[in-house]
Design goal:
single chain, seven-stranded mixed beta sheet, 7 strands, binds S-adenosylmethionine
Length: 302
């Protein structure tokens, strides 16, 4: 059987790394290590004076990323860069890095294939598992607590806001009636009965509700806002930022934040339109279909 790091295919790998413009003695931060596909790509471009810093708040992902990067480290021997791995949310980045010390920063938002594919993590309705959905399994309420404990109104609002689900009220009512809801399979059935797929729908009727719960449980949008706010202070002049998002809520935050930064003279935007995967990558890796890469360069001015 393949180990998860071999099964995982990093999205827009070549494009993201090209935007980072890696110099062998620089400091580069991968804010979302996951299975370290992008991180390995960066590590291989660094020399012994280079430094790779990686974040992941999922202890399981961090351990797998470490194992992969340890193998690269051994292979590169005396030419290997320094590697520092941090098992915390990337919103804490400013606590770990000095101002104006970073040459490039990458973030590939969302869940990894490891998290999504393992039923016990509770992210997917494709396989039945406990309703968990936490990236950081050490803390915080899980999806079961949210689904069973928040008011119907709050549930409807979060499904609407984070899932962009028009039938959120109907879904929230059905969930509250179906309590206790403890598994992904049970939740998917409740949602599909309350708001069945319509003819034109190409996605499973529970997709948006699952997305909303995941974003809420992991405070994903606040995390992205915090990172994009911290990034300009951490980057050196002419240093690069590359962010990959997978749905419109993430991409809107990235787009708006970079545009506002450009208006203030903090960023020079390198991607007038977001970069998307080519046909060949989409065929190879269906997850890349919704990926959007935006990149910017820190100006020297402010
Ligand atoms: C899409 S995967 C990254 C895949 C990675 N680029 C690769 O090549 O394997 C996203 C990873 O970021 C982590 N993550 C998401 N949000 C995070 C946050 N706010 N702080 C730290 N890690 C986060 C997730 O746990 C997940 O492992």
């Amino acid at each position: 059987m393949l180990n998860p790091t071999e099964r995982h295919v990093p999205v827009l790998l070549k494009e993201a790394i090209e935007f980072l413009n890696v110099s062998s003695d620089g400091t580069y931060v991968d804010c979302t290590l996951g299975l370290a596909g992008h991180a390995e790509g960066i590590a291989r471009l660094l020399g012994p004076k280079g430094h790779l810093v990686g974040f992941d708040r999922d202890p399981e992902a961090l351990a797998l990323a470490k194992a992969r990067l340890d193998r690269v480290y051994e292979e590169l021997g005396s030419q290997a860069p320094k590697v520092t791995l941090i098992g915390e949310a990337f919103s804490t980045i400013a606590r770990h890095l000095e101002p104006a010390s970073v040459n490039g920063l990458l973030a590939d938002f969302g869940v990894s294939s490891l998290q999504f594919d393992e039923a016990y993590r509770g992210f997917s309705f494709q396989a039945d598992g406990p309703l968990d959905m936490r990236m950081d399994t050490r803390s915080g309420p899980d999806a079961a607590q949210v689904v069973n404990e928040v008011s119907e109104r709050e549930l409807a609002n979060l499904i609407y806001e984070y899932g962009e689900e028009r039938r959120s009220r109907r879904i929230a009512r059905a969930i509250v009636r179906g309590r206790p809801v403890t598994s992904t399979g049970q939740l998917a059935r409740i949602v599909a009965q309350a708001a069945p797929a319509m003819k034109q729908d190409r996605i499973h009727p529970a997709t948006r509700t699952f997305q909303a719960l995941r974003i809420y449980v992991n405070s994903e949008l606040d995390e992205i806002k915090a990172l994009l706010e911290a990034a300009p202070k951490l980057l050196k002049p002419s240093a690069r930022l590359a962010v990959i998002s997978f749905h419109s809520l993430e991409d809107r935050i990235a787009k708006d934040s970079l545009r506002e930064g450009a208006r203030q003279g903090i960023w020079e935007i390198l991607t007038r339109k977001p970069v998307t995967a080519g046909e060949e990558e989409m065929d190879r890796n269906p997850r890349s279909r919704s990926a959007k890469l935006r990149a910017a360069e820190r100006t020297a001015a402010r």
